[in-house]
Amino acid sequence: MADESDIVSRPLLIVSNRLPIVVKEEEDGTWNIRTGSGGLVTAMKPVLQRHGGCWIGWPGDAHGAPIDEMLGSVGDEMGCKFSGVPLSEELIEGYYFGFSNETLWPLFHDLLGHASFDQEKWVFYMDANRRFAESITEEARPDHLIWVHDYQLILVGKYLRELNLGNVLAYFLHIPFPTLDIFARLPWRVEVIRALLAYDTVGFQTGRDLRNFVECVRAFVPESTAEFEGELAYIQLGERRICAGAFPISIDFDYFNDKVQDKESQDSAWYIHENHGANTFCLGIDRLDYTKGIPAKFHAFSRALEKYPDLHGKLSLVQLVIPSRQDIPEYKRWKDRLDRLVGEINGRFARHGWVPVHYMYRSLPQYELMGYYRAAEICLVTPLKDGMNLVAKEYCACSYDDHGALILSEFAGSASQLKDHALIVNPHDLEGVADAIYRASMMPVEERHERMQGLRKNVREQDIFWWVNSFLGAVPKSSTPIVASALATELPDDE
Ligand code: GDG
Fold first, then answer.
1. Quick one: which of 233, 204, 232 has its CA closest to 217?
2. Whose CA is nearest to atom 26 of ligand 1?
3. Which residues line ligand 1 (CB under 6 A)?
4. pTM score of the predicted model
5. 389: exposed, middle or buried (Cβ count in 10 Å: 0-12, 13-18, 19+)
6. Which tens digit of pLDDT belongs to each residue from 332-342?
7. Does residue 289 sit in the same domain as residue 211?
8. How confident is the model at residue 277, as a pLDDT?
9. Which domain holds residue 300?
């Protein structure tokens, strides 16, 4: 393991599918570019500003904007170079919408019924990952620690090795890693698992993901050995030693805790509460995605109203659904289903002065999002499966007066850290979720405070900066040599 001083003094080369930028055309026809506001940018910014480095990714559809020039200006602000990987529309369709989102996304979230396996899309995936690797070799210096992110780019490390790059390579998977039984369905399972072993360090969100990965390595790379040493697993493959670990990602706690107390967020919270006409409300914030369990959440809320009539007139569900992947027909069908369900619940239970479900299908500015976090007495986070789920952590960071209650799916990665103080539920168990909703809405103030204090302590202590340091702390100073046979995808003859 590298020591702290060495970790922070290394320039980083970050690789993600999308560059963290927002490009906008102004009314006067000029172009505006700024960095996005996600957790990864927040965490990387101080490290990049201090030690320099580079961020490589697809810049998105430029729509005629002078993208290279604009990347220069936004890179100066971040203290690093932003470099775009140009990808054709056909490649984005096959690699991103296709293999990444129709194969890996559902499979890794245990939702096999949504997964399709298409050889042509696998070829696009390989091609796009190879292009990322080629762009990296143009930017990489020997002292760069190359850190690749997420399921769209699993093969990049393998192609970098084939291009003889000897840099230290690290990889972090933001979504879950499935069990052996599920992973084994992937026709390209051997290629994928071996590609992950081209990195020196592989990070997962939870111990469960790490154990699943190690089990798959043991099954599909039989000439390797894998041993746990404390919290980390070490895989020996020929002369190479690969470190794998669980590093739960988080948020900038102080930012959320402070920002929610700004006048803008406070005014927004007041306005939201005044306009809901109920004493209490449960908040749901989810991207439109079948992994998020939104229909099951609606059914559970409806069941709570059926089972506990004393909630009528007193409790509402405010559900924000963030538009996502709108070009995919399956996502359009999901939206229609949600519209219908909301209509059914409100049609059945609403009465004068009380609407049970308030449903919004749009993105909100951040101060308004914080207003909702602040105003909600209960946050209902019930994904069927989720790598981590940052909404749960943001809600805790915004509950600065310790008043909120968190209901959390046991299948969200964040449950591994927050299980002692959240109300943990199985999102498939409608009775259980309905009971948790009732329990949260009736929870005595002392219990609410005690639980929220525990939740906030965890999110404060294990924030996004803790995540970066603990991940980089597991990255070795130099890479171990790679031999061609280690990357081969054929099983040895005697297997
Ligand atoms: C992957 C994994 C893992 C949402 N609506 C609005 C808005 N948001 C912000 C939230 C939060 C983020 O989006 C969503 O958090 P997730 O945790 O779901 O993150 P994803 O990037 O979707 O997903 C996930 C994560 O990576 C990190 O490793 O937790 O499991 O799937 O930050 O605040 N922000 C604004 N307006 C909105 O309407 N401003």
1. 233
2. 174
3. 174-175, 249, 285, 287, 322, 363-364, 366, 369, 386-391, 394
4. 0.94
5. buried
6. 788 889 999 99
7. no
8. 64
9. 253-461
